[in-house]
Task: structure prediction
Amino acid sequence: MSDIITDAVETMNRKIAGRSFDYKVRFELPGEGVFVVDESGARIADEPGDVTLKAKPKVFAAISDGSQNPAAAVMLGKLKISGDMSLALKVGALFG
Result:
């Protein structure tokens, strides 16, 4: 698996530490891979989620480091969301 996915999983595990997480999010980073986040934490896995977020690796990195607002990324078409939109809002709060 790519270093980008490994780094993304580590980042998400830091962001969700100590938080209640009762749903599953699938992150798709085209050209790099897929990972999921659920009550067990973030891990490399190709599983369906309650909500799926798809972004280029650079966009995900920018959202993760706070230089890209997730809502703006959606409006600009840089971040695609499918599934439960209310859960996508919860995920977005992790990056605030």
Observations:
- The beta strands are 25-29, 33-38, 41-44, 51-55, 79-83.
- The chain has a mean pLDDT of 92.
- Residues 55 and 81 are 9 Å apart (CA to CA).
- The longest strand covers residues 33-38.
